[in-house]
Amino acid sequence: MKHKLRFAAVLLFLPLIFSPLLAQEGEEMQDGLLAEMQIEPPPQAVITVAEDMPNDGGHKLTVRWEFPKEFTSSVVRFEVYRAYSPDGEFVLRGESPNDFYEYLDIGDREEESPNYMPNDSSYYYKIVAVGTEGVSSESEVGGPYKTYGQWFHTGKVPLLIAVILFCIFTIYFVLSAKGGKELYIRPLAGIEAVDEAIGRATEMGKPILYVLGIGTAAEIATIASFTILGRVAKKVAEYQTSLIVPCYEPIVMSVAQDIVRSAYLEAGRPDQYDEDSVFFVTNAQFAYVAGVNGIMVRDLPATNFYLGYFAAESLLLAETGNAIGAIQIAGTDQVSQLPFFVVACDYTLIGEELYAASAYLGRDPLLLGSLKAEDWAKGILMVLMVLIILAVLLGWDAPREWIRVNL
Amino acid sequence: MKRRVPLMMVFVVSLFMVVQNFVPLDEWNWIYQFLLDWTMIIGILSLLLGMWSLWKVHTQKIKRKSENYGYSFITLSGLILMLIFGFFPGSGGIENYWYRSFFYYIMVPIQATMFSLLAFFIASAAFRAFRARSVMATLLLLAALVIMVRFVPMGPLSPIVSDAAGWILKVPNLAAKRAIIIGVGLGAVATALKVMLGIERSYLGRD
After folding, report:
1. ipTM value for the complex
2. What is the pTM of this model?
3. From the CA of B198, how many Å to the nearest CA of chain A?
4. Are B50 and A255 an interchain contact pair (Cβ–Cβ within 8 Å)?
5. What chain A residue is nearest to B122 in terms of C-alpha separation?
6. For chain A, what is the domain count?
């Protein structure tokens, strides 16, 4: 019985005696395994190609590499390095996730930029696969890879086709109009009212205020407004009414002065042209509003024209004009300002109607022809939109891709 | 000749602008930027023209003692004072104390006042626009009401009003806006083409 108890005690204590030794052995084994894992870096990536990115000035390269898929989990990320020569200093350009074997290297075109990437130059790349335990492996240096600028942006082919078609339309209709073909143009209330508005001012013996907006002379809306100003000024000269044109921009003022002067000349009344009737106010937006509103409440014009590019000042001007009881004709291509003009003015030229106004007023066949081309382009665009929507609804996506412009 | 040279210049420059849109080469972009820079330079230089016009108009008013010619005094004083503060040797340019004070404590509050007037003008314009005199005007009034009350807490009605407002903005409103924008885009191209081809030449003024 005594021996049995001793044997049992020994059996109980044996694990306790050997456990440190076993634990030590386990730790050693684990350390050994870890050491093995840490020492073993992930396999090398192999750079397959670095292609110049199309449709740019030559400042982008797409680097691609291969990597054994079974080792994906052993890699945290890939680091992409670039140098100007195989022995040169490799600079980190960016990182790529462990399951994505491609990197788009985008440089700047400006020489002053630290990220400058000259075009028509050769580059060398290497890929560093960073392992889970921080051990990494470098690929062989790949290169030279060259960047170069393109002469044509292939992503803009649909745009080019549209421009060419539109030019053909315009030239065709202009030639038709020149050939004496009668072109029907839908009447516009705002344009029909121009003569009536000028006549009203003449009868009342009050001036006409013409505001060209706050756009520069390069704005399409301002250019369209110049044309209308010419027609209005000619009528004003014929009716011997006075015209006030306060300008926001000095270049616009200079052009407007020339247009009004030539309109008076055309009307056979150059002596009545007052150079100070077209003048500069300021190019501070709300100071300009204050100036024009001041003119309105002091001179009480009978007719106000607001034609051109307008922003927040549109309602400030139109409401003041409404308050003084002037007949008001407005037109802008700024969609956000149109509701204000519609509410506060008697007639409003919506969007492209402003551009078309010169053709309506002048009835010049050349201008009418271009207007007709515009209408045809709109018609074709509408048909095209309906057809493409139908195609997409029926599950045919290709037409959508044909007209996609990739900028 | 006086007319042909500017027209030729317009044609060449605008043709370049059209073509460069399709050519991504650096050299073309450089010329494009160069031309844009020049527009800016010309714009800045033209300020002298504007100042001359301002000076001429207001001195004439003072000379003739036209009605309210006192305002012309204030305008010219502002112009002269700001020029002195900004350009006087040793004044510190735009960092000058008086220049900054005039700008921040007179110009900015006055401009803010003008802008704030917009709230009242919107109210008066809305009052006129939303009078239900016809079916269309009533529709406009209803749409405006829905848009206006969409942020007002209305208990269980809130999500319905919010959805209705969202639909008005995203469907009929956006459709109309896009139609105008497409028209504007085509109109702009047509006008640009007219200017480029010399069909539209009113901006050149006298023949």
Report:
1. 0.88
2. 0.81
3. 10
4. no
5. A315
6. 3
